[in-house]
Each structure stands twice: as C-alpha cells, then as structure tokens.
Amino acid sequence: MDDPRDLRVFACLHKLPEPYREIVWLRVYGLLSFAEIAEIFCRSESWSRVMYHRGRCRLRELWEREWEEDCHD
To answer: What is the pLDDT of residues 23-70, one digit of tens each?
Structure first.
C-alpha cells in the first residue's frame, strides 16, 4: 500500500453505495464468481454482472473526480 493510488481506490470504493461496494469488493478482492455473488444476494447471475458493471462505472467516476480534485489542489 505504498502507492497512494491504492489508498485512493479504497477511498473511492468506500464512497460507493451499497450493494455496488460489496459486489465490487467480493468480485475483485474476494475473487468470487458472478454465480457466487448472485447466490449471496439471492439474485440471478445476470443481476450480479450488471451490478458489478454499474459499480465499476461509478467507481471510475469517483476516481476521476478524485483525480481532478488532486490536480486542482
């Protein structure tokens, strides 16, 4: 965690609303499959894929916003 970008990723991940935060966390850091995530949430695998995609998009938006703020400071 010496790279400050890592901390920024965790900060942005923390700002994600649920269930996006948990789904991204489970997929990226928990290494769970979409089927396993779907089972946890009692949803379909398609739902878990869509929610993961939306969560990643929101995470990217947060990241870009953080990056812009850092550049203007």
So the answer is: 999 999 999 999 999 999 999 999 999 999 999 999 999 989 887 776
Provide φ and ψ at 16, rounded to 5°. -65, 140
This prediction has a pTM of 0.85
Residue with tokens 């928990």: 30
Quick one: which of 53, 54, 36 has its CA closest to 45?
Answer: 36
Output Rg (C-alpha) for the chain, integer angstroms: 14
Lookup result for tokens 């942005």: 12
Identify the CA nearest to 10 among candidates 20, 27, 25: 25
